[in-house]
Fold this sequence. Notes:
The protein is α/β, with parallel strands linked by helices. The chain has a single domain, classed as Immunoglobulin-like (Sandwich). It has a 4-stranded mixed β-sheet. Strand 3 and strand 4 form a beta hairpin. The protein is elongated, with a radius of gyration of 18 Å.
Amino acid sequence: MGTTFVRLAALAMIATGAAAQEVDLTGKIAIELNTVRDGDSACTLTFMVTNGHETAIDQLVYETVLFDAAGQVDRLTLFDFGALPVGRPRVRQFAVPDVGCDGLGRVLFNGLHTCAAEGLEAGACAAGLVPSSRVEIEVLG
């Protein structure tokens, strides 16, 4: 019984620590590169995106720069994340043709192309970007 209490206490401390490390997304947009997958002469990038603003976003598009593993620019493109409800994560996939996932080294959200949202201040989608990655490809914004 004492061992069970110690285990439960340890789990509670771990859970509390994890909660303390969460990023406050109020007024921000979090974009996480979650997975990458090779297939049919393209690399598919899967992102999880969360809108931390107080209003839904009708359309969100970022100018995105893909760098190869050597650090050189491979291409500039637009990633359209579509409509984003408030506070609910959404998953979006983009197939990048003629590149293998192992050939990508970095993704840079270079600038905001479109942020259509009624009542959202101009530039709010650009200033509050929180990029992250769960894979070996670095994500910057």
